Amino acid sequence: MIDYRIDHIGVAVADIDIALEEYATLFGYRLLRGPYDDFAQQARVAFIGTACGKDSQLELVAPLDDKSQVHRVLAKDKGLYHVCYEVPDIEEAIAELRVKRCLLISGPTAAVAYEGRLIAWLYTPQRQLVELVEAAV
After folding, report:
1. Distance of alpha carbon 72 from the chain centroid
2. How many other β-carbons are positioned within 10 Å of the β-carbon of residue 35?
3. HEC-encoded secondary structure of 9-26
4. 53 in helix, strand or coil?
5. What is the tens place of the pLDDT at every residue in 111-121?
6. 5-134, which class in CATH?
7. Pairwise CA distance, residues 133 & 4, whole Å
């Protein structure tokens, strides 16, 4: 079995700057990296967390244009967008998850926010969106 480590939790937001201000006020979060315009994903993303480093990172995901999948998520009033797992071998992880009835919906493709490392998107049998990111070498 592949070693799946939670990398971040994705949260759909309408505007990254407004969301970052709210997370800073409420929870003391700060910008860790980004924002990045990822045209392949049709999204603008930024990673946030606290200075203590003991929390999981959040990825704020905002629609980059009208064709973005994020619009549909926001229209349903859902903030939680996805859970991202870092894996040592993305092709092996995809193969393993497909055997377990997960549906590959996108990728693997190079990700702007991960310096070109490969990412992939899958739906679980419970219709939860999962992102995989290949670990850095």
Report:
1. 16
2. 17
3. EEEECCCHHHHHHHHHHH
4. coil
5. 999 999 999 99
6. alpha beta
7. 10
pTM, two decimals, is 0.85
Instruction: Give the chain's end-to-end CA distance (angstroms, integer).
Output: 19
What would you report as the CA-atom Rg of the chain, rounded to the nearest whole angstrom? 15
Give the pair of three-digit tokens for residue 18. Answer: 């407004």
Query: What local confidence, expressed as pLDDT, does residue 79 receive?
Result: 78
pLDDT digits (tens, 9 = 90+) for 3-15: 899 999 999 999 9
Q: CB neighbours (10 Å) of residue 113?
A: 21
For 80, phi and psi rounded to 5 degrees?
-65, 125
Catalogue the E-assigned strands of the chain.
5-12, 30-38, 43-49, 57-63, 80-87, 103-110, 118-123, 129-134
Virtual CA dihedral for 124, 98, 101, 115, nearest 10 degrees?
0
Domain ranges of the chain: 5-134
Which residue is it, tokens 């967008």? 81
